[in-house]
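Our preliminary data section would be incomplete without showing what the modeling component actually yields. Below, a chain of 178 amino acids is followed by its predicted structure, encoded as tokens that our downstream tools consume directly.
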Amino acid sequence: LHEISITDSLTGLYNRKHLMETLDKEVSRCQRHSHSFSLMVIDIDHFKKYNDTYGHLAGDEVLSRLASVFKESIRSSDYAARYGGEEFIVMLPEIGPEQGVEAAERIRHKVAEQRFGNEGEPIKVTISVGVASYPDNGEDAESVIKKADEALYEAKEMGRNRVVLTGTSKKKKKSGVK
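Predicted structure:
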């Protein structure tokens, strides 16, 4: 019963409630020991379109298989959870921002190698990832998530299928005549 209460039934990853409890504990641990952690917010690119085109069962397969990719791509000390819908969070204890970006890039590449669908041409799925770290980007779990989420949306604005570390992207200014 305990396992069921902390796990997302579709993906087998931890659920949002357990995620928030775990992040609060990690922040407290990091404060006590002057340590850091990195956090990724991951979103499946164009997932609504995929779901609408191929159906909810196909969308569920994507969510489930990507969760497996996340689990296979992280250390035993790392933590992966389904944040909601097609968003996931991966927390990397004792990892700084640059190493967090490296881990996110590894995951992004592994996802891009996957192919979905049984009929016709295999379908490629990509992810966008925002990375933030504690304590550099916030003093509590919510603020670090918020910064990683902002970086995720920058990744989407920059064309998707990429990793952005919070505060490092150079948004392109649009030029031309109004």
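Confidence is low (pLDDT under 50) at residues 172-178. The first helix runs from residue 2 to 6. Preliminary results of this kind motivate Aim 1 of the renewal.
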